[in-house]
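Data availability (excerpt). All sequences and predicted token strings are deposited with the supplementary files. A representative entry, rRNA adenine N(6)-methyltransferase, is shown inline so that the format can be inspected without opening the archive.
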Amino acid sequence: MAASAFSNSIKRSDIIHRLPPLPTIRDLIRLYKLRALKQLSQNFLMDERLTDKIVKAAGNIENKYVIEVGPGPGSITRSILRRRPNHLVVVEKDRRFIPTLQLLKESTFNVIELDIIRDDILKYNCENAFPTCKPKDWLDSPSTHIIGNLPFAISTRLLINWLKDMSLKRGAWIYGRTSLTLTFQLEVAQRIVAEIASDQRCRLSLMSQFWAKPELKFIIPGSAFVPKPEVDVGVVTLNPLKLPSTDLPFDLVEKVMRYIFSMRQKYVRRGIQNLFPPKIRDDLTKRIFYEADIDSQSRSFQLSNEECLRLAQVYYNIIQEHPVIDSYNYRGPKEEREVWDDWDLNSMQ
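Structure token line:
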């Protein structure tokens, strides 16, 4: 039994470093006539030192379970494989890259389990990724990771989707506190980690920090990508908090944060008041700031995480009393907004 285990150890530690020679990423791109598609926001990272650095930022993934988002021709995929995960699932929407990924799968056959999923990551259910992975207690160190060079066009929407899954412990988070190591346009990366009073602070900052601990690990110059984007790129890790900052419903919190930051250069009450129909707007706006114990003339970026959550809590209390208010949308069609013109608290009893 010990001899068998030793044999398996040799297989995983040595063979992965003796992979059969493969064409370089540049050769593969030429071979398959691959080009980055603008509509898919594709930018390839060709420098092996940088792809290794991205994977290193994820921490120890040896014998762990990893999902890679948008592998493209497989440059980051190779760096992941060199770290010897137990099981790697790559999710790629563009059929043109499947042959290059298939080469990697064949090269690691019987060494590392590599599954290639041709799907849109916005639609892919990560719960199906690892049938043999046993869920871990939320407080335990995670055995699952998501790594990806994200297309700029979907990065924010994808992160919000994942944060919601994280809050509900579904999707990739049925396995435990799955960590994220992702690339973002630098400005977006800076928003994710922005602290109080930062010019970059926004809804995304708060939503990321309520459920995870985000860190900007390093910056990659745009010149390192092919084709070269007009901006630099930030590599961000997000590790789910053992104890989230709130147990309020994700969608409600996201809604309140959106209104808080909708007029960031004006007093925060200007955004918050739009949560409520016209006739009851003043009364409920005064109430929300009074009960949250917050100065209504603060600016949104001056509010702490805890203060923002107090506003969300009072809004939650209000809609528990008057559920219909939650359906009000001050940006909705005119005919829908007109229905609310004569509504007051008495008409909602």
